[in-house]
Each structure stands twice: as C-alpha cells, then as structure tokens.
C-alpha cells in the first residue's frame, strides 16, 4: 500500500521562510526607537516576520531577506489619525498625502459625516488596494439625514428608535464609535437627549463618542459642558474633536475648557481631546449663515431669501457671525479653499473677492457675496481665527491626541488646508523640535499609543514584540512640514520610510506597489 504525505500549504509557506537561511523577513538596523509609550528612545534593531514585530534588540548576528539601515534616525510606530476626512478614499486609495506624513491608519466618519449605508460602504472599501489602514466611525448627521432629512425638528419615538438601530447596525459591522457635527445641518437641530440616546448604543458596543461640538466660539464653554454631560449620561468615552477657542473674543478660553476636562476626568469620566497644529480652521461658508436658514436644503434656503423679513434676519445673522464669531472686520482672514462656482478664487480671500467686485472691504459688503456663494453651491473656507497660545496649551494637555482633520488630497486639485499634507510632521518639527512645546517622545505618544488605546488596538501604535509592524523612519533634525496656506500641495521633508503591516510602502521618497493597507474594524480588536 502506498501512502501519500499531505502537508498543509500554510506549513510549506512558513517552512519556505526559513529554508533560505534567513532569520527574518526584514530587519531595521541602528534604529533610534521611540516605542510610542512616551519612553526615552533607545538604539536597537527591529526584526519583522510577515506583519509582526518579533524581536527588538541587538541583532547584528541575525540575517533577513531585507535589511534597512536607519543610521540612528528615529523609528516610531506609524502615526494614527483618528479624525480624518477620507470620503474620497475610493478615488485616492493610496492615501499618499497621509502616508507621506508617516500615517499608517486613518479613521473616517468624523464630524457626524460618512455613508448612510454603512455596511455596503465598508464592503466597497474592503475591495480597495489601500495604501494605509483605514477604519470608520458612524456619523450622527448621516444617520439623522437618512431618517429625518434636513428638517429642523425633533425625532418621534419611532424615528429615534430607527436612528438607534442604524447606529447599532454600524457598530455591529465594525464602527469604532459615533461622531457628531453639532454645528452642521442636520446635527445642529438635535437636542442633547437625542445624542445621549445614540451614544448609549455606541457605548453598549464598546465604542467611543467624538464630537465637533455645538459651538467652538462664544458658546464654547456651554458646548464643552454638553459633551461632558453626554459622557456621564451615556457612560461613554468622549473626544472633543479638533479642540480650539475660535475667534478673538474667545482667545485664552482653552485654559477654562481644559480645567473642565480635568475636573470631569477626576470625577471618573473619560474625556479626551484631539487637535491639529494650526491657527486656522476649515469648514464651509455655510458656517457663517444662521443654521435655521439652511433647514430643508438649498431650495428652502433660496425660498426664505425671497421673504424680505427672513432675508433681513439672515443678513443680520451673517453679519453677526462675521464680526463677533469669526474675523471681525479682517476679511483677509476668510480664505477660499474650494469654490466650484468661482474656482479662480481658490486660495484667495474675501477681501480679494470684494476688490474684484469693486466693493469696499467691509463685513456689510461681504454679506451678500456670502449669500450668493451659498445659493450657488457653497464654498469650503479656511478661517484664520485661532491664537497660538491656545494651540500650545491644548497640545501640552495630557489627554490631547494629534489628529489632522484633513482630507485626502492630491497635487493640483483645489486648495486644501495645509493640515492635509503636514499635520504630523509639523508637530514633530515645529512644536517638538523647534518650539519645545512637547518632547519628541511625548509628541510621538500623542500620535501612536494614545489613539491606538482609544480604538482598542493594543497591538498597534507601539513598538513592542508581537505588535503589528506599522512603522515610520524619519530624520528628527530635518522633519518639516512644507505645505503652507498659500502653497498647500507640498509633501513634508524628513519622512524616509513607511512600513504598513510589515511591507515597505514608502522608500526613497517614492511609494512602492505594496498597497498593504487593510480595513480595520472594531472586531479587529477582539480575540
């Protein structure tokens, strides 16, 4: 009788790894290792097999199929951006503007946005050749719009139940948490109790709650208080998204909001923050328009403008927002980022537009131009409205993570906020190395293990044996963001190598063909 030996294919593949007289797939030698936990760096070698870090130490006598000499440059865990706008991931799956910053994981669905059909969307993303890892939150605005449209009203009991079911469905399909954009239509029409009801669903599935809070300017204190109330009543970890004190009238208010965060945490709540390292924000021109005027969509807005009483009220509201909430009479602080109706204005300011129209640069004259812009599809703006002292104070806080709030971008298209190209290198170069607001170890912790812990990803965001090999090699003396508000389409300097899931994805200033990113879900964190 003849016997046939059956050997599993997986064993043969594994055997093949080690019949080549190589100890590892990849070794990074002479690395100044920042482990992501805030510890001081150590010069070590890092060995990788498949997608995992398997050994850290002195490996000079070990061999690998591929070796990288880091030449004592910094090696850190890949940066994790928990607040990203990646709605265009299907068009830009390589996510080059993020990868070139050293980012290895992007979390979309921020500010209440995201797909209405969450499971179907994830199925599409799963099929992409991703350059970096991606994951998602479920957005309150998307859920509310699916059930209520853009109506300015409270949901019925049945409608609230439907919204809760949609949040539960998304959480069951791997959403990491629930996000809100409480300044945006339609989320701005919700009451606190509605948000609490939905946050409880996310909490029941082990998720967190992140919020573009209801007001980052004159109502900042009340909005932070509301977020803390949601943390308490929903029993959920909360994140104050892109925390800031917006507008000259609120400069310095971060001192008070951070004390509120400290008090909440001392009382047993879990309140965290994220932040981008710039003194300018970016959102729609609609932020200057009273939210009630936008209810029901564009046609309803235009109809209201035909009513003299309503138009007068809208104009007064816009003027108030310009002067008291945003920029005063300094209209050069209102910069156009994306303006399909008048693309020639992208990168220019409201002051420039008024000059083109032959009008004096005053807030009163700007009001009608803002209305015309909104009537013709709106515009995305950059608002130069924050103070550097608040940025520094927030960044130093122990609970603050670094996140870009950026959009996937490609050179030559529109006029993005520079945060889309430079957030993480800017913190490392400007705020850690040059200004010494943070130590380099602290800065790296805020971009790696802290966001990983928020997501429950204990095997990412740190350089430890057994962790996933998402790594970035950078020159701490040369790292620098190059993107500016005038010329945003510029990649940073100093990022030398990016490794995603054990595969070299960026090397010698070029993307490789690895496309080794994965869709991560909350189930990824479960054994």
UniProtKB/TrEMBL annotation:
Listed Pfam families: Amidohydro_3
Cited CDD domains: D-aminoacylase
Organism in which the protein naturally occurs: Salegentibacter salinarum
Amidohydrolase domain ranges (all copies): 389-504
UniProt-recorded Gene Ontology molecular function terms: hydrolase activity, acting on carbon-nitrogen (but not peptide) bonds, in linear amides
Gene3D superfamilies: D-aminoacylase. Domain 3 (3.30.1490.130), Metal-dependent hydrolases (3.20.20.140), Urease, subunit C, domain 1 (2.30.40.10)
The name this protein goes by in its record: Aminoacylase
InterPro entries hit by this protein: Amidohydro_3, D-aminoacylase_insert_dom_sf, Metal-dep_hydrolase_composite, Metal_Hydrolase, Metallo-dep_Hydrolases_sf
